[in-house]
Amino acid sequence: MCTPTPHADHPDSHEERPFARGLGELRTGRRTAITAGAAGLLFSTLAGTQVARAAGGADTRRRAYVLVVDGCRPEEIDSGLTPNLHALRGGGLRFPRASSMPVMETIPNHVMMMTGQRPDRTGVPANAILDRELGAIRDMDRAGDIKVPTVIERLNRRGLRTGTVLSKEYLYGVFGERATHRWEPMPIVPVAGYAPDVFTMQATLAMLEEFDPHLVFVNLGDIDRFGHSDLTGTTLQLARRTALAATDALVGRFVEELKSSGRWEHSMLVVLADHSMDWSLPTQVVSLQAPLEADPLLAGNVVIADNGGADLVYWTGPSSRRAEAVRRIRAIAEETEGVLRAWDRRAEWLRLGPEAGDVVVFCRAGWRFSDPDPLTSNPIPGNHGHPATRAIPFFLAGGHPRVPRGKASSAHARTLDVAPTVASFFGLPSGAALYEGRARI
């Protein structure tokens, strides 16, 4: 589930939203605001950074662009609606077995892209968690939530310029001040918490023109947002198909700019999704709050962070009874219709860390979680977070000689391969000492 979690749900919560924190960074002078040309786009730059294109930075013409087509399913690139993405995929190096990683949500997989590390190291396992210190469920939208260095920071230290153009409020928040140049996204769609792709691409092109960063990290959110709300998702997918075609046209515009400006032959594009999408009917909703509260041990001692296709369940009772509670939570969850599997969060393969609570529950394909309230907590038909949404498109394109042409790889590429791939492209260390992911060039 990608709809931002309301911070005000908890009476003791006085959390600032990410944009408010961003304005604070501008007021304190940590970042400098710059308006781009006649378009009136607002960017911010790290204080003390030279903003002229030729100033600072290593002496390299190489450019890397990470384009995240948020929520895109791999088969949608063969739908006929995305000719530009289809051409990029066919002309470069594609990974048909590619996948996102648990939990298959937006924030953790974008963090994995830029860190090359799993959530038990990054500290970011899901979109929404129970913040035990705050005593409330919140989005992982704080810059301090990321506990390890990103490839953005590693490039900065080498004198390379970096930029983020992130359409979603919580992505803007979690990546914070890391990039040399940052788009301050607007206009923001109320409730959805994101800027539409037409503005995001306008900002991307303006960032190239104004600052020409060596790395630009872009999130295009329309495909995901339209998919969430598409009431025809289980059948016609009318809104979804509209978004696919529109976003693809914007990607085509971006490629045209790279070619016309002479950047293409020096560039590598990493194009991927953070997760795919699954749709459910109103009758196929799982809510675990009531059955867990009906258990004498668990009543009043569990909190659920709903992540659409995954529920993170937190035991808040005495630690001496945690093992017994985990067994009860798993048993009750797995007896509930629509649940695929309930895992002890400490299962080695999950690699989620303590921020993810005590039990991680995935729903079946065609179902969604709605907790704590089965009617109001998650009414949207399109969701992700569960294994049905693991498969993603992932391919490399561009005119730089290091980018293979017209090839397919049987390797299992993952979202955490992006950071080492970018590092390798720029000649930085990209091995296992720094990244769990693998460089794919």
UniProtKB/TrEMBL annotation:
Gene3D superfamilies: Alkaline Phosphatase, subunit A. It comes from the Bacteria. Transmembrane segments: none annotated. PANTHER family: BIS(5'-ADENOSYL)-TRIPHOSPHATASE, ECTONUCLEOTIDE PYROPHOSPHATASE/PHOSPHODIESTERASE. This is Alkaline phosphatase family protein. It comes from Nocardioides kribbensis.
